[in-house]
C-alpha cells in the first residue's frame, strides 16, 4: 500500500497574486532511501512514484481519490496566515 500526504499549496513568495494557492496536492512519499550515486554524488532512486503530484480543488476530493485507489493518505493542515498590520505613520514614531 502506498503512502501519500495531502496538503494545500501555499502562495508563491515571489509573486503578489494568489493564483493556484487554493489547490490541494496529493503527493506520494517514498518508502525507500535514495542511494547516492558514487560517480556523480547525486541522489537516485528507481521509484518514480514520489515525483507524482496530483492537484485537487478540495481536500474532500483528494481524500476520495485516495480512498478509491487504496492509498494511505494523511492530511497536513494548512498554516494560518499571519497578518502584520502596520500603518505608514508608524515609521515616524
UniProtKB/TrEMBL annotation:
Main location: membrane
Lineage: superkingdom: Bacteria
Keywords: Electron transport, Membrane, Respiratory chain, Transit peptide, Transport
GO annotation, biological process: electron transport chain
Keyword Transit peptide: yes
GO cellular component: membrane
Record-linked InterPro entries: NADH_UbQ_FeS_4_mit-like (IPR006885), NDUFS4-like_sf (IPR038532)
Keyword Protein transport carried by entry: no
Listed name of the protein: ETC complex I subunit
